[in-house]
Amino acid sequence: MIVIKNISKSYSDTRALKNISLRVNRGELFGLIGPDGAGKTSLMRILTTLILPDSGKAKMDGLDVVSDFKKIRQIVGYMPGRFSLYQDLSVEENLNFFATVFGTTVEENYDLIRDIYYQIEPFKTRRAGKLSGGMKQKLALSCALIHKPKILILDEPTTGVDAVSRKEFWDMLKKLQTKEITILVSTPYMDEATLCDRVALVQNGQVLDVDSPTRITEKFPRKIIRVRSDETYRLINDLRAYEKAESVFAFGQFVHFVGINDEVETSELDMYLEKRNHKNILAEEIQPGIEDVFMNMQSNI
Amino acid sequence: MKQLKSFIKKEFYHIFRDPRTMLILFGIPIAQLLIFGTVIKSEIKDVHIAIFDQAKDETTMQITNKLLSSGYFILDENLSNTAGIEDIFRKGKVKEVVVFENNFEEKLTREGTAAVQLIADASDPNMARLVTSYTTGIINDYIRKLNPNLQIPLQIEPQVRMYFNEEMKSAYLFVPGTMALILMLISAMMTSISITREKELGTMEILLVSPLRPSQIIIGKVLPYLMLSVINAFVIVLIGHFVFGVPVTGSFILLMLETILFILMALCLGILISTVAKSQMVAMFISMVALMLPTIILSGFIFPIENMPKVLQLLSHIMPARWFIAIIRGIMLKGTGLLFVWKETLILVGMTLIFIAVSVKKFKIRLE
C-alpha cells in the first residue's frame, strides 16, 4: 500500500532522511518508532505530499507522491503532530467543516467515526481549544477519518495524552484496521510499539530494523538485568563505573544493565552494589523489550 | 462551491469570535478617522492673541473688533508695553501679538500709511504662518473698505478663490486620505494575518492535504474581508458626511464601486504578503511598515505630490492609494463621473490583476 524507495531529504545542512526504504502492506498497522528528530515527521510529510523528497520515490496506493499529489490528497487522512484544528470553532463545526472540504457529509461516514465520536459528542458545542488533550486527539482523528481515507497517517497522536486516553486511542486504531484502512503511525513511546503489526526503528534518518515487535525483541541476543536500589541516580553512576558494564539505562524506577558479555550474573552485581552501600538492592534477569533493543542499537551507532 | 461556502462560513466564525479582529476591523477605523479629523488641521479656530494698542483710537478699536468677531481669534490680554510680549509667548497660550503704533488713525488719514506689527509664536511655524496670514487678510480687508478709493500705485490684488473647498476645510482632504489608509491597512493586514495564522497554528497543513484548491482558499479568505471592508468604507463616508460635513457630490454608487475595487486590490496585496511572511508578526510588520508609511507620505494624502523630489514623485506612481485618493477626491468633492477617473480606475484594476496572478502563482501547494 505504501512503498518508499531510497528517499532522502535534507534541510540546509541537516540530513533528515538518509536513503530510507520501507514497505507497508494493505490493512497493516505500521509503527515508526524513534526519538524526536529521527526523521519520522519528515517521512510522513513526504508521504502526505506536504514536502518534496530530494531523491527517491514513494508511492501511496500506487500513486506517486510528487506527480499524483492531487489524487493522494483525496485518499489520505492525516493527523499532524501538533493539534491542528480550529481552536475557535466548536467540535461540531470543525467536523462539519472538514467533511465539506473533503466533499462529504458527517452523516455519510458516521459509522466510521461513531466509536470515536460518541465519546466527544456530549461536548459538541464546546470550542476545540477548550477540550482536554485526549478529547482533542479524538476529535482530530474523527476529522482525519471523516472522508473515509484508504490510508491514515498519524504523527505522534498520543504525545501529551494521559495513559487512559492513550490506551483508548490505540484500541480505536485496532478497530479501524478491521475496516480496511492502512495505518501508519509514529510514536516516541516504546510501549506502544508492541501494539503495531510491524514496526520500523528509526534513528538519525535511517531505518535500523523493520519487523514485528515480538521478533525484534527475540532477535536481541543479550541478557538484560533489571536492577533497583534506594538511590537510583547513584545506582546508575555506580553501574556505569563497573568494569563489566556495557550499557546502563534508566527505565522508570529500574535500571537496565547489559554486561560486556552474558556471563555477568545477578549475584555479582548484588555483591558489587552492597560494597557500595546501596540499600534494598534487587537485581533480576528479564526479557528484553523494544526499548532495550532500541537503546542498544543507538549506543552501537 | 459547497466547499467554498463552508470555508467562508468558517472564516466568519474566526472573525466574529476573535475580539481582537473585531476591534481592528471596526474600532480602529472609526477611532482613526475621528483622530485624524480633529488633529490634522490646516484651518484655524479660536486662536488666543494679545493686543498692544498704543493708539487706542477709533480705527484700532474697529480693527480689533473685526479680528475678534471673525471667530478665528480670542483676545487673551491687552498689553501695555512691549516687555510683556516674550513672557506671554513663553506661557504658550497666546500665539500672536498685534501691535498698533502710536497715532494710528492720524497717520493713516494724513500720510496714508500706518504700521501694524504682527508678532507670532513660530515654535509651530505652520500655525504662525496661518495666524499671520489670517490677520493680515482681515486688516487689509478693513482698510480697503475704509478707503474704497484709496489707490496705492500699481497695486495688484489677487482675488483667490478656493475651488471645491471654498473654505479650505482640511476635513475635505483627510477624509479621502484616511479612507484610503484605513482600507489599505485593514484589508491587507487582516488577510495576511489570517493566512499566516493558519500557517502558524498548523491548520494550513491540513488544508493543504485536503482537496481544496489554492484559488478556493484565496477566495475563501478574501470574500469575508471584502464584505466587512465595504461596510467599513460605508461607515467612513457616513462619518465624513455627518461629523465633518464632507459632501458626496458625485455618484454614490460609483464611489462605492471604486471603493470595492480598491479594497479588492488591498486584499490581494495582503495575500501576496502572506505568501512571503512566515508568521503573524512578520505579516503585521510588513503590512504596517511597508504599507502604512508610504501610503501616508507618498500618496498625496498629507504632502502634495507636486512638491516632492522627482524620485519620490516617480515612486508615488506605484502607490495604489495615490490613484484611489485621486478618484475619490474627484467623486466626492468635484462630482466627476467615471469619464474623468477612468485612467486611475484602470491602473487600480491592473494592480489588482497583477496581485491576484502573483498570489495564485506564489501560493504554496506544499509546506515549503
TrEMBL record, chain A:
Q: Which PROSITE patterns match?
A: ABC_TRANSPORTER_1, ABC_TRANSPORTER_2
> Which UniProt keywords are given for this protein, alphabetically ordered?
ATP-binding, Nucleotide-binding
Q: Which GO terms describe its molecular function?
A: ATP binding; ATP hydrolysis activity
| Pfam families (UniProt xref) | ABC_tran
Task: Please report the stretch or stretches of sequence annotated as the ABC transporter domain.
Answer: 2-229
Q: Which PANTHER family match?
A: ABC-TYPE MULTIDRUG TRANSPORT SYSTEM, ATPASE COMPONENT, ATP-BINDING CASSETTE, SUB-FAMILY H, MEMBER 1
Q: Please give the name of this protein.
A: ABC-type multidrug transport system, ATPase component
Please name the source species. Answer: Mariniphaga anaerophila
Classification of source organism:
Bacteria, Pseudomonadati, Bacteroidota, Bacteroidia, Marinilabiliales
From TrEMBL, chain B:
Q: Which GO terms describe its molecular function?
A: ABC-type transporter activity
Q: Which Pfam families match?
A: ABC2_membrane_3
Give membrane topology per the record. Answer: Multi-pass membrane protein
Q: Which UniProt keywords apply?
A: Cell membrane, Membrane, Transmembrane, Transmembrane helix, Transport
In terms of superkingdom, the source organism counts as Bacteria
Looking at the UniProt entry, the stretches that span the membrane are: 21-40, 171-195, 222-244, 250-273, 285-305, 340-360
Q: Which residues form the ABC transmembrane type-2 domain?
A: 136-366
Q: Where in the cell is it found?
A: Cell membrane
InterPro entries linked: ABC-2_transporter_component (IPR051449), ABC2_TM (IPR013525), ABC2_TM_bact-type (IPR047817), ABC_2_transport (IPR000412)
UniProt GO cellular component terms: ATP-binding cassette (ABC) transporter complex
Which family does this protein fall into? Belongs to the ABC-2 integral membrane protein family.
Name of the protein this chain belongs to: Transport permease protein
